[in-house]
Design goal:
Blueprint: H1 2-15, H2 19-23, E1 26-30, H3 39-51, H4 55-59, H5 64-72, H6 77-87, H7 91-98, E2 103-107, E3 110-124, E4 127-142, E5 145-148
Antiparallel strand pairs: 1-2, 2-3, 3-4, 4-5
Helix pairs in contact: 3-7
């Protein structure tokens, strides 16, 4: 019984710093309004650096944990850079998404920018095929500033 009480107390203590974030309602910002939020320009700068293969510079825009992980695994840097270049949208695609379909979801100290890219093609007269791809870019508030959480 005592172990259960101690475990519950430990869980309560661990969750207390998160209480203000949990109490805050979700906010959604759509389209061009995202550029009025600090995350909009940050996201554009981040994807531009990633696509240029400048992960060292991109990680300066990331939270401390991501920077520490980068330093911890020097042998994985090339494969991680290649993976991120493949996963992140180009600056042009992100800019286009930010003018229309993108959604920024803010939940307390965390946020996700969902960039949506839609493509259509006609294979024959009267027939249109459409597909969409969504990329979520995570952010976290750290030391009073938004940082990329990837």
């Amino acid at each position: 019984m005592r172990k259960a009480v101690l475990a519950l107390c430990a869980a309560w203590v661990a969750l207390m710093p998160m209480a203000p974030a949990l109490a805050q309602p979700e906010a959604r910002i759509k389209g061009a309004d995202i550029m009025k939020h600090p995350i909009g320009p940050l996201a554009l700068q981040y994807v531009e650096l990633v696509q240029a293969g400048r992960m060292e510079d991109a990680l300066k825009l990331s939270h401390n944990k991501a920077q520490a992980e980068w330093k911890k695994y020097p042998g994985e840097r090339k494969s991680y850079t290649d993976f991120m270049k493949k996963m992140m949208p180009s600056r042009a695609d992100l800019e286009k998404s930010l003018q229309g379909s993108a959604i920024l979801i803010i939940e307390g100290q965390r946020a996700t920018l969902n960039s949506i890219k839609t493509e259509q093609q006609s294979s024959s007269p009267g027939s249109i095929t459409s597909s969409s791809t969504t990329v979520g870019i995570p952010f976290v508030m750290e030391d009073g500033k938004w940082k990329v959480a990837a």
